[in-house]
Specification:
two-stranded antiparallel ribbon; four-stranded mixed beta sheet; alpha+beta; extended; single chain; 417 residues
Length: 417
């Protein structure tokens, strides 16, 4: 018996073991088990309300609650396969685990040795069927919740594609405030787009999802992700929104998408200095000898050297992180230029990168705040737009950065004006 079970069965000795049948065997106290001995079984006892004695006290005199009227008795713990399958489905869905994990021998051995000796592996087909039932139950619960209250919905849509199968899926999420004034987000549709993802096909899929949940006449807005937000799609969605707004429909671009386009325009103009800083980081990290020399230069300047990492070109926030880590090490220019015996990193490029880092800091903070899901962001949009306008005006006449600024400001004016 598990030594921890002795605290539950107060009348049992530490050497007693229960195999779940209610019968006990008393074993004499032995020395420590050898390294080759098999581990003892996990306890199958459970504490329950003391209605009638389930297991007699091994010491005699009294019921299984220890004889002191504590209100609990000890009995065999019942293993419920249905409950185990339900909890397993919840685990797989919430943690995005493989469907076949419950059918593997290693998972069965782990559960048997650590938690429940009665557990047996579950066939993959059974798990898939349980997941479908789990999904249908939650969909039914959502439909009941949506029809039970006077709720309005804001939909957000994103396109998911598979390059191998060349298939496109539309993901639809519903945002709403419930009766307790809590903002909720629920994914209500993940639909295959038959054929080319045209504006009519996307609008038809969104309408199908809305009608499936019975919310087609309570939609206040539809937010479309990159590649979906265009005039044709909004024209096709106008009848869907017109039921709630009385025919008043307008197109508003996502502020997060606007920020991304502005920064991308700046990254294009800053390609030369950014490539130079990436090459400098690669040179320092290319060998242990180069990093040792760089470390010596840092010590001479009173700085502690650290490993520098380049950015990912497809994520501009990683470019901001790279500049934030590299710019304090002005010694990098002297080290790289001296090692290569040429002006690889010029003072002009370093000045451009310093100013561009200040720009990225503003956009990074705005993007972090405005990309929140469970908090209101519409009230912050105007504040960050005004901050950007002030930022553009302050650097418009800068002799170093004005040429880089022009394409960024042009994108800003195109969307905001």
């Amino acid at each position: 018996m598990d030594p921890h079970a002795g605290a539950v069965a107060s009348g049992e000795s530490a050497g007693d073991e229960d195999d779940g049948s209610g019968e006990h065997e008393t074993h004499p106290t032995s020395s420590a088990p050898s390294a080759n001995s098999r581990p003892r079984k996990r306890s199958r006892l459970t504490a329950a309300a003391d209605v009638s004695p389930t297991v007699d006290d091994c010491s005699g005199g009294g019921s299984g609650d220890g004889g002191g009227g504590g209100g609990e008795s000890v009995g065999a713990w019942p293993y419920d396969e249905s409950a185990a399958r339900d909890e397993l489905v919840t685990l797989i869905v919430s943690q995005d685990l493989p469907v076949g994990i419950a059918g593997s021998a290693s998972f069965e051995a782990m559960v048997r040795q650590s938690f429940c000796p009665q557990f047996e592996r579950i066939d993959n087909a059974v798990t898939i069927r349980d997941i479908l039932v789990f999904h249908e139950d939650h969909v039914a619960g959502l439909k009941e919740e949506f029809t039970g209250g006077n709720l309005s919905f804001a939909l957000s849509c994103e396109m998911w594609g598979t390059s191998y199968h060349r298939m496109s899926y539309l993901c639809v999420a519903a945002h709403y405030v419930d009766g307790d004034y809590i903002l909720n987000k629920r994914v209500i549709g993940f639909k295959l787009i038959d054929g080319a993802p045209t504006a009519e096909a996307i609008a038809r899929r969104i309408l199908d999802v809305a009608m499936e949940y019975g919310i087609e006449n309570r939609i206040v807005s539809v937010t479309l992700g990159d590649g979906l937000a265009d005039g044709e799609t909004m024209d096709a969605l106008a009848p869907l929104l017109g039921w709630y707004t009385g025919g008043f429909v307008f197109l508003q671009r996502c502020i997060f998408s606007i920020l991304n386009d502005i920064v991308r325009a700046g990254l294009t103009e800053m390609a030369g200095p950014l490539d130079a800083i990436r090459s400098a980081i690669a040179y320092v990290s290319s060998s242990e000898a180069n990093f040792t020399e760089f470390e010596k230069c840092c010590v001479e300047r009173g700085q502690k050297a650290r490993k520098l990492w380049p950015d990912s070109k497809v994520r501009w926030d990683s470019t901001y992180d790279m500049l934030k880590e590299v710019l304090p090490y002005k010694v990098l220019t002297d080290f790289v230029n001296g090692s290569m015996q040429q002006e690889f990193l010029s003072e002009h490029n370093w000045s451009l990168l310093s100013i561009f880092d200040k720009f990225l800091a503003k956009f990074y903070n705005a993007a972090t705040k405005l990309s929140a899901v469970y908090s209101q962001t519409s009230s912050l949009t105007l504040i960050y737009i005004c901050d950007m306008a002030v930022l553009f005006r302050s650097y418009r006449t800068d002799p170093v950065f004005s040429a880089i600024l022009k394409p960024m400001e042009a994108v800003f004016v195109k969307y905001i004006q």
